[in-house]
C-alpha cells in the first residue's frame, strides 16, 4: 500500500522508468527494422543493376528467343 509520499514517489518513478524502457525498446526495434529493409532494398536494386541482359535500347522491344 502507499502509506506515504515517499512510497508514492517510488511507485511513480518505477512506473515512469518501466514505460520509458518499453518506449526505448520499441524505438530500437523500429530502427533495426528500417535498417534491415534499407539493406534488403539496396541488395535488391544492386542485383537488378548487375543483371544487365546486354540488349541495346532498340532491341528491348523485340521478342526474346532463347537458343
What does this structure look like?
There is one protein chain. The chain has one helix at 5-50. The model has no long low-confidence stretch (mean pLDDT 83). It has 67 residues and is mostly helical. The relative contact order is 0.05. It is rod-shaped. The protein is built from one helix and no strands. The longest helix is centred in the middle third of the chain and has 46 residues, at 5-50.
Number of helices: 1
The fraction of residues in strands falls at under 5%
**Helices and strands: which structural class?**
mainly alpha
Biggest sheet: strands, sense, closure? none
- Along the chain, the helix and strand elements come as H
Cα-based radius of gyration, to the nearest Å: 28 Å
**Which descriptor suits the 3D outline?**
rod-shaped
Number of strands: 0
Fraction in helix: 55-70%
Overall pLDDT, averaged? Answer: 83
For the termini, the CA-CA separation is 83 Å
User: What are the segments in which pLDDT stays under 50 over at least 5 consecutive residues?
Assistant: none
